[in-house]
């Protein structure tokens, strides 16, 4: 019975494609939401850079620097360098969208400072998941190519699937980290009065749209893993 690899077949259409469409919709939504609320300038005129500094200061974090980085929505916290990097549309902008994004990244810095357990777990498994994501498909390919060697091929295929599963584990661990950073951001924005009550909606909607991209990423990884299991999981029995 021939193997079906990671190409275009019915399992791809019914399982993976809907999740990929969900991911594309989520990505388009976060971009459109950010663009919309980038036009809503806060009355207090606090920039993304200053908002992030306020969040850090409010949480007693004084050793994190903030830098401008090129690109659009390339904002992130680098725990190795202990630096929050904000894109130009966020760093210099006083929009509610920019403030939401900047405070979210500051929330990640606070997570590390407070040794928030899920983010420590995510940092610990990153090397393993990176290796797994690189080896998964080569192992499955080798298992298919060495099919004539009998059980050895199944070992490689199943090992490849296990390696791929690590990417799903990483995505699942990422979810609580991102949701918690957004909650910290919104709480800090309210507590430090960076935005007025009427302006909070823009920041909240921007962060909610961003969070959905992580949910979509989990769905895509889960669908791809399920497809691999369906294609190869029962191969020994069927062949």
Characterization of this structure:
By secondary structure, this protein is mainly alpha-helical. The chain has one domain. It has eight helices and three strands; from the N terminus they run H-H-E-E-E-H-H-H-H-H-H. The chain has helices at 10-37, 48-58, 88-91, 96-113, 117-145, 151-191, 200-232, 235-238; strands at residues 65-69, 76-78, 83-87. It has a three-stranded mixed β-sheet. Strand 2 (76-78) and strand 3 form a beta hairpin. Helix 1 packs antiparallel against helix 7, helix 4 (96-113) packs across helix 6 (151-191) and helix 5 runs antiparallel to helix 6 (151-191). It is elongated and about 70 Å long. The N and C termini lie close together (6 Å). Mean pLDDT is 89; it is low at 1-6.
Please describe the structure with a list of short key phrases separated by commas or semicolons.
8 helices, three-stranded mixed sheet, single chain, 239 residues, mainly alpha, 5% strand
